[in-house]
Amino acid sequence: MLYGRTQEILYEINKLKEVKDDDEFRRKYKTLMKSNVFVDSPLAISATEVFRENTNLFEEQIQEEIMRGDNPLEFPGLKFTQTADESKALNEDDTPSIIISASGMCEVGRIKHHLKHNLWNPKSTILFVGYQAVGTLGHNIVNGAKTVKIFGEEIAVNARIEYIEGYSGHADQEGLMNFIYSFIHKPKHIFLVHGEAEAQNTLEEKIQQDAGIPVTIPEFGETYEIGAVEEQASAGKVEMTNKIERRITTTIRREVIDRLEKLKEELKDMDAYVRQDIDDDKLKDEDIFRINEKIKDLEKQIINVIEG
């Protein structure tokens, strides 16, 4: 198997396009099987290049398929959109196609432009293939939002929304329990530091009941002493030695900078789209007015953040 979400999906699509002995399948999915496939994510494109350059590391089955001329990362209709202009052109083409885009939770990147142009269309299907954290645009769409706000504009969710959990990059409860059981020497204590509260509490109970291992879910700012006392260590006990109040740490400062960098990329991408819209001779006056008003709103929001 290929390891990488985009590459796995390309592998599956390639296999679908190869179906030759099922006339009913080919009849039902004729349009889908003839559609071009666009990978519209700079990071995914770069990752695919890494895969292409290291096919000798693929599993033996995949290497044999490549030797027979069936490379899952190179098939008719597969295209990679490198630039923002190429990405924008996808939304101006009515030809049925498959667009693989990012980010996974729809918070930043080109995916937001594709959602803006396709969420309202009942002929479109938006397929999510990974975990959608609470509070994200992706989570709202998956959980049945009728409208969502994208670039300050309310967009109706009329498209067909589908969700496949199997491609998630996170192990589920069963996978985590199997990981715990795989240890030759059972852990004496387990800390759960990632995930939503409800899922953490459920997993904590599962580990303690089924594996018999003590579990701690630390809160922000807590410090634990592990193995300070030999008797406690052997019993899997840990002791919280300090707890600080939430304050601005180096990590949070770095997070602020990272978010600013993402915002800069988002604005850069938005700039390219807006400039092309403005240069479009077919654009109506009311459309230009609408764009101008939305930019004014964005300016006000930025000023409010700066002035506090």
Highest CATH level, the class of the largest domain: Alpha Beta
Largest sheet: 3 strands, parallel
Number of domains: 3
Low-confidence stretches: none
Proportion in helices: 40-55%
The overall pLDDT, averaged over residues, is 80
Round the Cα radius of gyration to an integer and report it: 24 Å
Question: What layout of secondary structure does this protein have?
Answer:
Layout: H1 5-17, H2 23-28, H3 30-34, E1 36-40, H4 42-52, H5 60-67, E2 78-80, H6 84-90, E3 97-101, H7 111-118, E4 125-128, H8 137-142, E5 147-150, E6 153-156, E7 160-163, H9 173-181, E8 190-191, H10 197-211, E9 215-216, E10 222-226, H11 230-234, E11 238-243, H12 250-278, H13 285-307
Parallel strand pairs: 1-2, 1-3, 4-7, 8-9
Antiparallel strand pairs: 5-6, 10-11
Helix pairs in contact: 9-10
Structural commentary:
The chain has 308 residues and is α/β, with parallel strands linked by helices. It folds into 3 domains: 5-167, Rossmann fold, CATH 3.40.50; 173-243, no CATH class; 250-307. Helix content is 47%, strand content 14%. The chain has 13 helices and 11 strands. The strands form 5 sheets. The chain has a 3-stranded parallel sheet with strand order 2-1-3. It has a two-stranded parallel ribbon with strand order 4-7. β5 and β6 (153-156) form a beta hairpin. The chain is globular, with a radius of gyration of 24 Å. The protein starts with a helix and ends with a helix. 13% of the residues are buried. The mean pLDDT is 80.
